[in-house]
User: Fold this.
Amino acid sequence: MTTELLGERLAPSGDLPAGHAPERILGLRCRACGRAEPLGPSYVCASCFGPLEVAYDLEVVGAILSRSVIGARPAGIWRYLELLPVDAQPARGLPVGSSPLVPAARLGAAIGIDHLLIKDDSRNPTLSFKDRAVAIAVAKALDFGMEALACASTGNLAGATAAAAAVAGLPAYVFVPADLEPAKIDHALAYGATVVPIQGTYDDVNRLCLEIADERGWGFVNINLRPFYAEGSKTLAFEIAEALGWRLPDVIVAPIASGAMFTRIARGFEELVTVGLVERTPVRFVGAQAAGCGPVATAFVNGSDDIEPVRRPDTIVRSLAIGNPADGRQAVELARASGGSVEAIADEATAEAIRRAARLEGIYPETAGGVTIAAAEAARRSGVIRPGDEVVALVTGNGLKTPDAFRHGLEQRAAEPGVPGLAPAIPASYRAFEAWLDR
Ligand SMILES: *Cc1c(COP(=O)(O)O)cnc(C)c1O
Assistant:
């Protein structure tokens, strides 16, 4: 039934087999103890409290899905529908995904990387990669008949949830740390969300939201819908492999907040190998965190699997400021097992990386992108990234979301003779302009 629906919606050429097909989505499964549960709005294992994940029958998927089936479909995340936990593309939704993989030779040369590609995921409807995760979570919230959408946000999730709720016609409640950048609060308000600033850190916000989710039954995209939310990040892996001509890169450099995106990119590659869409080749995973909130980077350096929570994050990289990351342990294991690393980046280096990406490639990242580019440079210096490696670095948000960050650590931004920068206001005459230029 599932595939018939798919066939109608996505492959009118009749690529998909008709008639009854075995189920490709098996349900939910506990990552810790393996216990199976039916697909529903639950996120922790009823017996061991481990995190639940979506389980697929990849043999069934492999029989349906091919490069040509995918290639014939419209752009966007739904071209990989069989590897996502929904029966069919939702009737309404924002156009998410298919962001460009941009060769970045000038930036690569500046940081010593021979083949640098930027996955520019700032080009999503609300200017961050969070639109991917939210699209899947909202599709499931609608399946489950939930009456409101909500989230605990470090910033970008606020706008993504609010916009998706607007399109779905559901109310949105967005919980954020009270010191969040005003641009991100306004972004969510603009889409009609109710924004609730909480006096505390992101981890305080998250704890409160766990309680609200239990009491109210709202669809918190990153809490009770988390198993589905996390699946959205796999589409980054699918798009990268497809853009490379159905191949995997040597290195992925990606930011870590909760660690969901970082670990699900690896899962996405794994699934592509299992269903026969790409050949298995080794990929090193380099994670990027801010030094002022780098619990996963600390565990990596200490050779530990235990994540020591950071109580008071202190960094300009607010979008990654999760002190107690849900997928932190998995993230450090992935970095280590793949021969990668997790880098802790000082705010000055993050700001410098933002300026470099903008000035050398015309790509203006938010702080999470700056951290990532600086982490690529650090991994190259330490030898984790080697000469000749093909490196894909993820820019996951647009710089207009963190408008002051690029200036961090700069004395001033006024133009000096021969140096670009902000000119003083001058009268509207050519004479005045010339006098300033030749000063
Ligand atoms: C949320 C976010 C991430 C990563 O989030 P995870 O919780 O690790 O999945 C990366 N970049 C940006 C800009 C984000 O907003």
Observations:
- Residues 128-130, 156, 255-262, 319, 366, 368, 396-397 surround pyridoxal-5'-phosphate (CB under 6 Å).
- The domain at 101-125+233-407 is CATH 3.40.50.1100 (Rossmann fold).
- The chain is about 40% helix and 15% strand.
- The CA atoms of residues 131 and 160 lie 5 Å apart.
